Automatic annotation (TrEMBL):
This is proline--tRNA ligase. It catalyses: tRNA(Pro) + L-proline + ATP = L-prolyl-tRNA(Pro) + AMP + diphosphate. Its EC number is 6.1.1.15. The keyword Protein biosynthesis applies. PROSITE patterns: AA_TRNA_LIGASE_II. GO terms for biological process: prolyl-tRNA aminoacylation. It is an enzyme of class 6 (ligase). Residues 1-383 form the Aminoacyl-transfer RNA synthetases class-II family profile domain. It comes from marine sediment metagenome.
């Protein structure tokens, strides 16, 4: 029965792809490293990619997606603007070493995927192809009975520019989407924004205060009788083998999806790594007074004063922290999780945060892969 459902879905997908002039292919799953080196994604795609070697030691992968391979085919077969535009697709088994498979059918390591690619002569052509695919996706989801929300999203490892995700609301979903019922704003949590008022304490000199065995935001807040919003949450991450301090307000959470768009693939530092870096245990650390380390802070901390932060000494915190005076910030950016009820950036009305399952994703990749792979063509002027 399950296979019958799958084949029916594939039939609908094929019908809608045929309707917009998208031609079907079936490409190899095995892909040589050389092709991925040309796009730069052999190293940057991350641990999701399965790697292997053949008996001659040649490195290959189980392609988690096929931008490189389709673009190589285009480079070898499309040589004139007269052959454009083209839209190609396949329905194929994909393999990804997902870190957290869920519910038996979400984020599994082997799955079917329809991936389509357009090749266009200019940005106007790209916009048209994108629009055709978007409309086809909406028709597919309507025909299979799915109520989808279209949200702005991050292109992630795919690269490129504008992109949108098609989401189905579900409590078991592994994505979060932020939407505004008033104006229609909708985005994946990884890029979502909200309006937040900055909070400062009383401006004062930097002082050290004892906070015996008080390491969490709640414990320090209660002990010093300071609101959590006036604390700095200082976290240490490791990116490209380098330590990075990541700062958000005490009542906020770091969104690791947003963080990775800033510093690349990263992981939280281990307790021993934090101790070696700062001389203190987690809960008592901050970049105050530290040099030669990258510091990334959320916009909500920019220009704030009179805050509390770890003193890099067990059982002590700094009070009276002035962010611009006492911390060398390399970059202020959006790295916090948007919370329900926060004001919308567009209309100032309360936002809603919901769990959802991603069922489709479309990108405007631009020349990201055609330049890397060398897919060129002669235009009307012969150049």
């Amino acid at each position: 029965m399950g296979w019958k459902v799958l084949t029916n879905i594939m039939k609908i997908v094929r019908e809608e792809m045929d309707e917009i002039g998208c031609f079907e292919f079936l490409l190899p799953t095995l892909s040589p490293r050389e092709l991925w080196d040309r796009s730069g994604r052999w190293e940057t795609f991350g641990a999701d990619m399965f790697h292997l070697k053949d008996r001659r030691g040649r490195e290959m992968c189980l392609a988690p997606t096929h931008e490189e391979v389709f673009t190589e085919i285009a480079a070898n077969n499309i040589h004139s603007y007269r052959n454009l535009p083209q839209m190609w697709y396949q329905i194929q088994t994909k393999f990804r070493d997902e870190i957290r498979p869920r519910s038996g059918v979400l984020r599994v390591r082997q799955f079917f995927m329809k991936d389509a690619y357009s090749f266009d002569a200019d940005s106007d052509g790209l916009d048209k192809s994108y629009s055709l695919q978007r409309k086809a996706y909406l028709k597919i989801f309507s025909r299979v009975g799915l109520d989808v929300k279209v949200v702005r999203a991050s292109s992630g490892a795919m690269g490129g520019g504008d992109c949108e995700e098609f989401m189905v609301l579900s409590d078991s979903g592994d994505d979060e989407i932020v939407n505004c019922p008033s104006c229609g704003y909708a985005a994946n949590q990884e890029i979502a924004q909200s309006r937040v008022e900055k909070v400062s304490g009383t401006k004062s000199e930097l002082k050290k205060a004892p906070t015996p065995e008080k390491r969490t935001i709640d414990e320090v807040s209660q002990f010093l009788d300071v609101e959590p919003s006036k604390l700095i949450k200082s976290l240490v991450y490791v990116a490209d083998r380098k330590n990075v301090f990541v700062l958000v307000r005490g009542d906020h959470q770091v969104d690791e999806g947003k963080l990775e768009t800033v510093i690349g693939e990263c992981r939280p530092a281990e307790p021993e790594e934090v101790k070696n870096l700062t001389g203190a245990q987690i809960g008592f650390v901050s970049p105050v007074g530290m040099g030669n380390i990258t510091v990334i802070a959320d916009y909500a901390l920019e220009g704030t004063t009179g805050l509390v932060a770890g003193a890099n000494e067990d059982d002590y915190h700094f009070i009276g922290v002035d962010v611009e005076r006492d911390i060398k910030i390399d970059r202020f950016t959006s790295i916090r999780t948007v919370q329900s009820g926060e004001p919308c950036m567009k209309c100032n009305m309360p936002l809603e945060v919901s769990r959802a399952i991603e069922v489709g994703h479309i990108f405007k990749l631009g020349t990201r892969y055609s330049e890397a792979i060398g897919a060129n063509f002669l235009d009307e002027n012969g150049s």
